[in-house]
Design goal:
It is built from eight helices and ten strands. The chain is α/β, with parallel strands linked by helices. The chain has one domain: Rossmann fold, CATH 3.40.50.1820. An eight-stranded mixed beta sheet has the order 1-2-4-3-5-6-9-10, with helices on both faces. Helix 3 crosses helix 6 and helix 4 crosses helix 6. The longest helix has 19 residues. This is Monoacylglycerol lipase.
Length: 275
């Protein structure tokens, strides 16, 4: 299916960029939220896979990312991201005659969709998260955290380099090289966005309640960016219909590893069983 690009207007007036690959009479719709510093254009192969297997695929460039407006890596507050997801889901409902929706987030996108589901209780068919930022696999420099805390109240748009090691996204050198050369990829995060996401991650790391929708959580065993043990602990700690899958021998972007087809087929099987 050919890609359709459209823009949405966020609740605060910012223009948000979306990509859609709809198919006729889909089994369900996947609404995808990408990770920090990247953009929806990196998921064309994922969209194509699910299209071929009967699912429409919609994706959003988060504010301050990709082709969406906003200072790179910035949000005035964490709730801005959640509001943007709400606008995105409302748009999808208007385009798909309210077809069943699986909300899918990767990395920081995983942090966002988990918080969205827990805080806003949307009507969803299910939730899919990969490599979610519940806890980082590395400890940021103390000066970076101190600056973020201080500058959030003085100058929320203060930017720092995230410290993300690009070689840790995938074990496939071609993926890493494409990431490094992608003009829409960036490594900046502002004080308000960074501290807001960090606090939201801490809430997930302490959460002990119920997941209100069927949830598939996946994490790479060798992830050096976000913590696999934190994801596994979350899945064991909460109640509700949660499936956890640890992928051995992979780095952070399990959908971009040499074994990506195995990963995508696993997601497909889980969605089919949830239908």
């Amino acid at each position: 299916m050919s890609e359709i690009t459209q823009t949405l207007i966020a609740k605060d007036g910012l223009t948000l960029f979306t990509r859609a690959r709809p198919i006729a009479q889909p089994k369900a719709v996947i609404a995808f939220i990408h990770g920090f510093g990247e953009h929806s254009g990196r998921y064309a192969h994922v969209a194509n896979f699910f299209n071929k297997n009967g699912y429409s695929f919609y994706s959003l460039d988060n504010r301050g990312h990709g082709r969406s407006e906003g200072k790179r890596g910035h949000a005035p507050g964490y709730t801005s991201y959640l509001d943007d997801i709400e606008v995105f889901l409302e748009f999808i409902a208007s385009q798909t005659n309210s077809a069943p929706v699986f909300l899918y987030g990767h990395s920081m996108g995983g942090n966002l969709v988990m918080n969205y589901v827990l805080r806003r209780k949307p009507m969803l068919k299910g939730l899919i998260v990969s490599g979610p930022w519940i806890q980082l696999a590395f400890e940021p420099k103390p000066i970076m955290i101190a600056l973020g805390k201080m500058m959030r109240s003085i100058y929320p748009g203060f930017s720092q380099d995230s410290g993300l090691v690009q070689e840790h996204i995938s074990k496939d050198p071609a993926v890493v090289e494409a990431y490094k050369n992608d003009p829409l990829v960036h490594g900046l995060i502002t004080a308000s966005a960074g501290m807001g996401a960090r606090e939201a991650a801490e809430l997930l790391n302490k959460y002990t309640g119920e997941m209100p929708v069927p949830t598939l959580m996946m994490h790479a065993a060798d992830d050096k960016l976000t913590s696999q043990p934190a994801s596994e602990a979350f899945a064991q700690r909460v109640s509700g219909p949660v499936t956890y899958k640890k992928w051995e021998g992979m780095y952070h972007e399990i959908h971009n590893e040499p074994q990506q087809l195995e990963v995508l087929n696993y997601i497909l099987g889980w969605m089919e069983r949830s239908a």
